[in-house]
Write a structure and sequence with these properties.
homodimer; Rossmann fold; 23% strand; ADH-like_N (chains A, B); GroES-like_sf (chains A, B)
């Protein structure tokens, strides 16, 4: 695994808890005001940030604090954060259960949109007013401002909706890569997915439709089922069916009108993943990118041996790190997704906007089932 | 999937039960004497064979009968069977639960060694006295003689023990392909496997040792544990441990002296497969080639997403069929394995030899746990 060497935003490491660090200094050089610089803050130097110094429930460990920003170096940018989603991975990171964990003190949030305020003298590919999003996880987006290396962010077009830009870098990228890199898909092929109403699921439906693929979309039963089915169909879903309906014998009739899936996308695990496997084509691939049910994927030996099904995983963070030596592929993917938004092929995600100081509302909602995506708005 | 077109030995097909055939004629053209040719049999024309006409328990469906052989055509061979193993897959085929099933009436047995008796006028790469083994599954090896296309068999060296030659075409080939084709293994790498005392497991230990690989071999606890450990170590096993010991915390000490496995070979499934996954290296591969526990492989989402583990299957029959258009690779593999036998790097498997008429003894034993491999001996 190739990790960046970056003096400000240190690369995250597994078992990062074993690192010894000065407790009140952030990896980007910013410091908590009230502890070390109380009375010295100015408008330029300080900003609000959601800070945590230990792992646990966010109610216990996350606090809104003033932190001092370091000076802007030659290769740096100063960025005003505009919006930052709250994702389940952010909550897991606070709890200390995610695969990578930042050193303490840490700022919460991995995803978000910022506007460039100030540009270091040696930075030639950014200017004040540009929109940017973080390249890597662990950026700490839940803050009003940040100073970082110019290479820690990539540009995103300003002529798309702010909420699209703020949520482009993780979920649509995950959908895009899984559809492009697995299953060797051609127009007319079929993709099956569970958790089809998730942010990734909705992006899969839309990007797949643009690629000429059929999608079979599995959702949980719920009171407003017809409304959700209609919504997903309006995004381009070929079929939307519940987990329960997928297990009925008559479901085999589906495959009279639509090819068996060459690719299955699983973010649930347990029985739900097993149900996907039962319908897949010979020689197909199941990609797991989440485990909402917190149960393993049960893979029958016969599916592996006689149906030659391949079971693997995808993690956007790792893909980005594998491509960190040359940002052109990441930039091209984000530019292509922005173009899809511009053409109306990738809709603005359904988000609940929450003012930054009301962050607890967003965190509470993110831990609830059937909740929409919540985004912290900094202005 | 490419299937051979062969007028005598028809390619097996999934759901072959739906094929309509004349009931008393075999796919190789031989016929059951007692039904159609009673009184016409001669030494040349007829032989004993273990025949079944429907699926079920072998006690109910398998019978020793006389069948008539067809004449030897220009491209054919007449072969005297010398020995034929009884494998679990043969039992599943009789039961009708295997992935491929021959048309009725069928002769049991997929693996075995034959000696060429008679050669068709257009066959130039075989002569009487040669030893041959079937290329494809479904050959029907549980019989005294057979007439087949010359391309339905490949040669095997006569200077290795008869039992090695009779058991070379399935289990050692499976071990060989899994070690060569998965995990991109280099000398010094580690392979972990369960069912390490199986015929495939023993071949894995020996072939891996020849490739400079370490092996961690998982077996079930049993009364004669030390004896079995010593035997597997004498074959070249680096470590032999029980399923129970693998789950103890102190097992992590193993990985101070030996690298974490890049490849896991699973023929059990269920918890046993899960235990293998827990110890694998980042980016490693688990290949499933059996499912003795009859339980799915439970794959945690974290193993797929954060450890980038790939879970797939291997089926020797399918590999052979994929390579049927050009037999050179199959022939080369068998020749290389025979050379390992000759050099003492691949031992004669522990087999119980059973006279052909006592076939029920061998079938009973094959369905029992902890039983050795049983081989029907035709002479």
């Amino acid at each position: 695994m190739k990790l960046r060497t970056c003096p400000r935003l240190q690369p995250l490491k597994e078992s990062i808890r074993f690192l010894t660090r000065k407790p009140a200094q952030f990896s980007d050089g910013s410091r908590i005001c009230k502890r070390t610089f109380a009375g010295h803050t100015t408008a330029q130097q300080a900003c609000d940030a959601l800070v945590y110094n230990r792992h646990g429930h966010y109610d216990d460990v996350l606090q809104l604090e003033k932190v001092l920003l370091p000076p802007v170096g030659d290769e740096d940018l100063r960025i005003k954060m505009l919006a930052a989603p709250v994702n389940p991975a952010d909550i897991n990171m606070l709890q200390g259960t995610y695969a990578i964990l930042p050193p303490f003190p840490a700022v919460g949030g991995n995803e978000g949109l910022g506007e460039v305020l100030e540009v270091g003298s040696k930075v030639c590919d950014a200017k004040p007013g540009d929109w940017v999003i973080p390249v890597d996880a662990g950026f700490g987006t839940w803050r009003m401002e940040v100073v970082c290396k110019a290479t820690d962010v990539i540009p995103v077009a300003k002529d798309i909706p702010l909420l699209s830009a703020a949520t482009l870098g993780v979920n649509p990228c995950t959908a895009y890569r899984m559809l492009k890199d697995f299953g060797n898909l051609k127009p007319g092929d079929t993709v099956i997915q569970n958790g089809a109403n998730s942010a990734v699921g909705q992006a899969v439906i839309q990007i797949a439709a643009g690629m000429g693929l059929s999608t079979i979309n599995i959702i949980r039963d719920r009171p407003n089922l017809k409304e959700l089915k209609d919504k997903l169909k309006s995004l381009g879903a070929s079929l939307v069916i519940t987990e329960e309906a997928l297990q009925k014998p008559e479901v085999t009739n589906l495959f009279k009108d639509i090819r068996r899936p060459k690719l299955a996308l699983n973010c649930v695990g347990g029985h739900s993943a097993g149900n996907l496997l039962a319908h897949m084509e010979y020689g197909s691939t199941m990609v797991t990118y989440g485990g909402m049910a917190k149960k393993p994927v049960p893979v029958p030996a016969k599916a592996l041996i006689f149906k030659d099904i391949n079971v693997c995983g995808f993690w956007m963070t790792q893909w980005k790190r594998n491509n960190m030596h040359d940002l052109s592929e990441i930039k091209a993917m984000v530019a292509e997704l922005a173009e899809m938004v511009r053409r109306g092929q990738l809709s603005v995600p359904t988000c609940t906007q929450v003012p930054f100081p009301d962050y607890k509302v967003a965190l509470d909602a993110t831990t609830r089932a059937y909740s929409s995506k919540h985004v912290l708005m900094m202005e």
